[in-house]
Amino acid sequence: DEVILATGSHPLMPPIPGLDGANVVQAMEAYQPEAQLGHKVVVLGGGLVGCETAVHLWKQGHEVELVEMRGELAPDAYRLHKHRLRDLVAQHVRAHVNTKCLAVTEGAVQVEGPEGEQHLIPADTVVAALGMQANDTAELEEMVQQAGVPCHKIGDCVKARKIYDAVNEGYLTAAAL
């Protein structure tokens, strides 16, 4: 009778040379038991996902460095979680804030620091935690519209956000039907 589109999102991949290399994995892939990660790991992206992934990898025994363009870590985390997460990163992960990733190579990440200085950070594995982008639903929406069926978009296909937002939107949409 009605269609709910909840097609999610996909990792954002900015045009950074080498980001498509064999030594690069997405943050969610780094949690998989079969993930083959080297000892030295550089996490690109210091938002909530990047910081949580960096702490997880440190707990798994990896030597972790984190690169973030902004001046603060995990600005998108909830208040109490943010403080604990930042403490764990400060204690166990070498964080480079106000630092831009210029390129990923087979054994390092080339970065530009806050003063414009460039240097290499050695890396066996690079984990990309660079954000998410909503999946395109235009074709599906058009098909549903042509069928004359009411359509609702929910979750990350509207805009990539936290799981709470998707669950809440799903509940409210289903309850309204």
Draw up the topology in text.
Blueprint: E1 3-5, E2 9-11, E3 24-26, H1 27-30, E4 40-44, H2 48-59, E5 63-67, H3 79-92, E6 94-96, E7 100-104, E8 108-112, E9 118-122, E10 125-128, E11 132-134, H4 138-146, E12 151-153, H5 163-176
Parallel strand pairs: 1-12, 3-10, 4-5, 4-10, 5-6
Antiparallel strand pairs: 2-11, 7-8, 8-9
Helix pairs in contact: 2-3
Secondary structure: helix percent: 25-40%
Q: Order of strands across the biggest sheet?
A: 3-10-4-5-6
Order of helices and strands: EEEHEHEHEEEEEEHEH
Structural class: alpha/beta
Molecular shape: elongated
Q: How much is the average pLDDT?
A: 96
Proportion of residues in β-strands: 25-35%
Distance between the termini: 10 Å
What Rg do the Cα atoms give?
Answer: 19 Å
User: Biggest β-sheet: count, sense, barrel?
Assistant: 5 strands, parallel
Number of helices: 5
Name the poorly predicted regions: none
How many strand elements?
12
